[in-house]
Design brief:
The chain is built from six helices and no strands. It has about 150 residues and is an all-alpha fold. Helix 1 runs antiparallel to helix 4, helix 3 packs across helix 6 and helix 4 runs antiparallel to helix 5. The longest helix has about 40 residues. It is elongated, with a radius of gyration of 22 Å. The model has no long low-confidence stretch (mean pLDDT about 90).
């Protein structure tokens, strides 16, 4: 399972580049990543850049949503466990139900951990955001016919 932000970078630039970017991050070559992303985005139209920005903002929002809702998922899991144990149902109902809600919870736990602690994906997305904002700013300045001094 990949983080939401890692999936975004793979959709935008491909799996091969994602692997290259993670290796460059380990070597602390962030400027190389920025230049590569900038050159890739420079060829895109302003409409495509706006669409990329929308995808970026949506992915960040989903990532935040996963983190914020995890406390409610944990509370629901604990309450479900307590209710199942307190009801005193027969074992062939209780044990499969406990197993099912535990599997679901551990899936959500893994999703939370992947999205919450994906430092490399966050750093790549921040570089992507900077390149994207820089190009969008240039596009706006060119449309308005302003000269940059």
């Amino acid at each position: 399972m990949k983080s939401v932000l890692g999936k975004l970078i793979q959709q935008e630039f491909g799996r091969e580049r994602y692997v290259i970017y993670t290796k460059k991050l380990e070597k602390k070559e962030s400027m190389d990543i920025f230049c590569d992303i900038y050159e890739e985005l420079k060829e895109k139209s302003p409409a495509h850049l706006n669409q990329s920005l929308k995808k970026l903002l949506d992915s960040v929002q989903v990532s935040i949503h996963i983190s914020r809702n995890f406390i409610y998922i944990t509370i629901g899991y604990i309450l479900s466990l307590a209710l199942l144990l307190l009801f005193g149902l027969v074992w062939f109902i209780t044990y499969p139900a406990l197993a099912l809600i535990s599997i679901c919870y551990f899936y959500k736990l893994e999703e939370f951990v992947k999205n919450r602690y994906c430092d490399r994906d966050v750093r790549i997305v921040l570089i992507y955001k900077i390149a994207l904002f820089h190009l969008l700013e240039e596009t706006c300045l060119q449309k308005e016919s302003h000269e940059v001094y």
